[in-house]
Amino acid sequence: MFREFRMSLLVAAVCLGVAAWWGHTTSMGLWQALWLCLVLSVLEVSLSFDNAVVNAGVLKHMNAFWQKLFLTVGILIAVFGMRLVFPIVIVSVATGMGLVPVMQMALKEPERYSQVLTDNYPSIAAFGGMFLLLVFLNFLFDQERKLHWLGPVERLVGKLGKADAMSVIVAVTVLLCTKLFLPEAIFQSVLFAGLGGILLYLLV
User: Fold this and answer.
1) Helix (H) / strand (E) containing 17
2) What tens digit of pLDDT does each residue of 36-58 get?
3) Taken in order 84, 85, 86, 91, is the CA torsion positive or negative?
4) On the chain, which terminus has fewer CB atoms closer than 10 Å, C or N?
5) pTM given for the model
């Protein structure tokens, strides 16, 4: 088993070392930085089990070339793109700062970086929420599914999938309904962020 995971363990050890050095050189502190990274590591591994099951189902229908591409480029995009690059881009867009200054702020001023992320949480949630909602809706409206956990209810809902772009229509409707619960001052930014999440899903 160790042979299978030795590269992963090596990368984890290096990352923990970098985290310890970063914590030591910032206001966070060495032990707090280590603890934070350990907790995030356990959380990431535990939450990735369901993705692994879904990915295995997708991979078995691919040829060797696409399997290799999925497990290299796809994983790099999912791990580094969405976990590291995407938050940097969000803060950059929200503050109007360049990517490099935002990266420096994340490394040297974590409290300020965290505050910017918190201040823009509604837009971030709208972007990711619309993307994930479309993933769920396309699964729900999939007429080719053989397994239905809720029996007649799911089969009835699945019939709605006969209408073109039904999942997008539902997602946009949900997004527009957020106007009922959000202050007018932030609805526009939430709307644009949500539409961005929908567009990204349609592109990929």
Assistant:
1) helix 2-25
2) 888 988 888 877 777 777 677 77
3) positive
4) N
5) 0.66
